[in-house]
Amino acid sequence: MVENTVNTQNAESHVFEAEVSQILKLMIHSLYSNKEIFLRELISNASDACDKLRFEALSNDALYEGDSELQVRVSVDKEARTLTISDNGIGMSKDEVVNNIGTIARSGTKAFLEQLSGDQQKDSHLIGQFGVGFYSSFIVADQVEVVTRRAGESTATYWASEGTGEYTLADTEREKRGTDVVLHLREDEEEFLDDWRLRSVIKRYSDNISLPVQMLTEIPSDSEEGEEDKAPEKEWQAVNSAKALWTRAKNEISDEEYKEFYKSVAHDWTDPQAWVHTKAEGKYEYTSLFYIPSQKPFDLYDRDATHGIKLYVQRVFIMDDNKDLMPNYLRFVRGLVDSNDLPLNVSRELLQSNRVIDSIRSASVKKVLGLIEGMAKNEPEKFESFWTNFGQVFKEGIVEDFANRERILKICRFASTHKDTPEQSVSVEDYIARMKPGQESIYYITADSFAAAKNSPHLEAFRAKEYEVLLLNDRVDEWVMSHVTEFEGKSFVSVAKGDLELSDDEKADKEKAAEESKDFIERIQNALKDQVEGVRPSTRLTQSPACLVMGEQDMALHMQQLLKQAGHEIPANKPTLELNLDHPLVKRLDGEGDDARFGDLVEVLYGQAVIAEGGQLDDPAGFVKKLNTLLTAA
Ligand code: ADP
Fold it and tell me: What is the CATH superfamily name and number for domain 8-219+230-238?
């Protein structure tokens, strides 16, 4: 058990969960190349705690306990070799201590461990992103003590650990609300007792914190002769500039400052890809500052993950991760909105149906779309990286944001048969510019892999006619495309569904072929019984013997498969089997007199069409057996 320097009662020892211990070990043994980040993390926690207090106090003024001057203080005791970070924020109850910095691994912990690369520089930057910042104290300390009291509560809690497998928890006292984190510095870490060194680190990391971070500072004395021995007077002075960056005029903010600010709001260490800073002064007055990150957050595909927009009202922080300010498909955007029209005591419930918020949101979406369009037009490399990182999520906007559908669709990029590579670089406008004379529709195919899309038998006739087809294989594509009907008067048509657009000659040929092969088709239909909706001669195949075609409103076969696997009940939409009557295999089938062998051949033809479609056979072993029998006979 840790020997404590604070007056405590009922001390008990607890053991950390394995993942927490793992993090601690890592902090101690592997992340010492960028030690000073612990200070950034602890000050950021202290500042968050003050923000939380301010928010809770909006509806319960008593929480201020008579002191509403919020600040963070950093102090050292050279003799005891301790560095203390104190705040008068919300503090923590005993349960909160256990949940937040005690026994239990938090959700980001595992994700953090999974992302580790072994590169110290990189790994130490990950700390802030995954919510394991507190433990970075152990990079420089061999013992950490926390004394904290939640605003409005009477007992305080003492927590201490040496960063090994366990920690001490006890009741204690703290006159004022808030938290002290006391670091007992390791040998060789004296630099963090140095006033000048601390100031420079604090300035670097905390200039964007809108709260004063103070240190005791000597004030020049106008001492009389003979009073030199008197200890110089000191007072708490802010080390950071504590000015909210977004309130300054745009032309006074340098790119460097924008980038630094991004790093502090987004807990990201890489530079942002782009940003847009707006002061709106129309019907509503507000300032917004939005950033597009240059890399994916770890929880991008989790639709419930936290969003990155902070809400301020008249420069007072109200809440993190506001979901009402940015739609889901722009959940990768980071930044803030500072409104002058909302009441300070605004609640989450109130925000959900609020005219001011709705108006800010719709203007904000337009700003972000404009920012992305600007990249697409002027900075193709940046745009490409944006699309690689966020394209899949952005596409959800086609479904989610009806009002901006056309604009979103214009930004989207796809792979297509034009290049036949998986790279998503074709816009709908590029496609339209390349449409063949007489071509009415925009053709696409969805499949569960790029290879399956590219090699699908459905493309054969389109390739022969040199019609371009968009090749879609992201998970969201089938769902997204089911919501897209047209773009600038051109309809979107899946090449795997419905009928093909035919010239009059082609139509006549098709009818003739159908007439001539009526008996043959019927024989196949009988052999397949109710596995298919129908059988018909194909105009879309030039190389493959057969393919399956879904009705226009039906779900693609590979999607049906996916949903079935996920346990969904889906309507049984039967495909139509299309045959390439010119294919040697089909011709051979036509002449087959033996009914049993005819049946086997038909099954094999049907089976391969299912497989080519990304579907699964009901009886794979039976299929293989039939195939082998036929191969042997051949
Ligand atoms: P993060 O701050 O990213 O959530 P940390 O490991 O740094 O992750 O902190 C874990 C949690 O502990 C915080 O989310 C917060 O709830 C709590 N906490 C940490 N420091 C303080 C503090 N000074 N005052 C109040 N709560 C704190």
Answer: Histidine kinase-like ATPase, C-terminal domain (3.30.565.10)
